[in-house]
């Protein structure tokens, strides 16, 4: 857990299409909502908001000050301008510091360049770089770390089970309801974080994957496949998941 992230927000009176004027003045409209809290329309300077987004990411609580009101919140959603990439709107989900929340945190590999595998010319590739955990908001770590220094041979792996979780933190396992029937289903802790490869084998696998991708693209082109417009989604930065985000029509229509 790093330094406390603070953000002072002003109450916002402009709504709907009028918020365009705020953006022209370098001010970002936002909303704060949560269980037992009426949505609050707020605003702050763009440079300040963008710094908080960078520092807090998807998993770090933000300490909000709105007038004489204090809230702890997670960044739930960041709407970006599709052309310029600038922040257009931010949704903050207020949470209670004594109630656990789910958040996705990055996984950092340590000991890179120190392993016998790397010194022997083998390649260590990271396959999993984020994982969802559950903890009290103020106990959420900036990242989970796992060392690869002990890797020696091709084929060796680091799994989620190799991460030693701090007390009070747990992995979030999403069940399907069929786990009892499928006793051979892989455990969450068996998820592979990093693997050791021979350079030649890795190059061959990459060449094969590139060939398959080319063939698929040619087939789609021949069949006149259209571009999936839905894939161009807005940037999302989920935080706590205890409550669904309020409909924007009820908060900030046509922002």
Plain-language structure description:
With 255 residues, the chain is an alpha+beta fold. The chain has two domains: 5-95 and 235-250, Ribosomal Protein L25, Chain P; 102-197, Ribosomal protein L25, C-terminal domain (RNA Polymerase Alpha Subunit, Chain A, domain 2). It is 19% helix and 33% strand. The chain has five helices and 13 strands.
Write the layout of secondary structure elements.
Blueprint: E1 5-11, H1 19-24, E2 27-34, E3 37-45, H2 46-56, E4 62-66, E5 69-80, E6 87-95, E7 101-110, H3 116-119, E8 123-126, E9 130-135, E10 144-147, E11 157-159, E12 170-171, E13 192-197, H4 199-222, H5 248-251
Parallel strand pairs: 1-4, 2-6, 7-10
Antiparallel strand pairs: 1-3, 2-3, 4-5, 5-6, 7-9, 8-13, 9-12, 11-13
Give the distance, in angstroms, between the N- and C-terminal Cα atoms: 34 Å
Number of helices: 5
How many DSSP E strands? 13
Shape: elongated
- What is the strand content? 25-35%
CATH first level of the largest domain: Mainly Beta
In CATH terms, what is the architecture of the largest domain?
Beta Barrel
Low-confidence spans:
227-243
How many discrete structural domains?
Answer: 2
What assembly state would you assign to the polypeptide chains in this entry? single chain
Mean pLDDT: 84
Give the structural class: alpha+beta
Q: What is the CATH topology assignment of the largest domain?
A: Ribosomal Protein L25, Chain P
Instruction: Give the strand line-up of the largest sheet.
Output: 1-3-2-6-5-4
What would CATH call the homologous superfamily of the largest domain?
A: Ribosomal Protein L25, Chain P
């Amino acid at each position: 857990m790093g330094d406390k992230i603070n953000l002072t927000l002003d109450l916002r009176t402009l709504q709907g299409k009028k918020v365009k004027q705020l953006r022209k003045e370098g001010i970002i409209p936002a909303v704060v909502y949560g269980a037992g809290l009426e949505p609050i329309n707020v605003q702050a300077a763009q440079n300040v908001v963008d710094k908080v987004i960078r520092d807090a990411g998807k998993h770090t609580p933000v300490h909000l000050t709105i007038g004489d009101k204090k809230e702890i919140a997670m960044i739930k959603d960041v709407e970006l301008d599709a052309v310029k990439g600038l922040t257009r709107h931010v949704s903050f989900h207020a949470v209670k510091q004594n109630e656990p929340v789910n958040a996705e945190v990055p996984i950092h590999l340590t000991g890179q360049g120190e392993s016998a595998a790397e010194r022997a010319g083998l390649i260590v590739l990271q396959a999993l770089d984020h994982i969802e955990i559950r903890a009290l908001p103020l106990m959420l770590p900036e990242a989970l770390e796992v060392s690869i220094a002990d890797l020696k041979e091709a084929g060796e792996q680091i799994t989620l089970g190799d991460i030693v979780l701090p007390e009070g933190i747990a992995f979030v396992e999403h069940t399907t309801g069929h786990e009892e029937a499928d006793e051979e289903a892989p455990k969450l802790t068996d998820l592979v974080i990093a693997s050791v490869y021979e350079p030649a084998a890795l190059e061959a696998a990459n060449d094969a994957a590139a060939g398959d991708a080319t063939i698929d693209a040619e087939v789609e082109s021949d069949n006149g496949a259209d571009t999936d417009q839905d894939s161009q989604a807005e940037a999302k930065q989920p935080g706590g998941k205890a409550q669904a985000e309020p409909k924007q029509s009820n908060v900030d229509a046509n922002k």
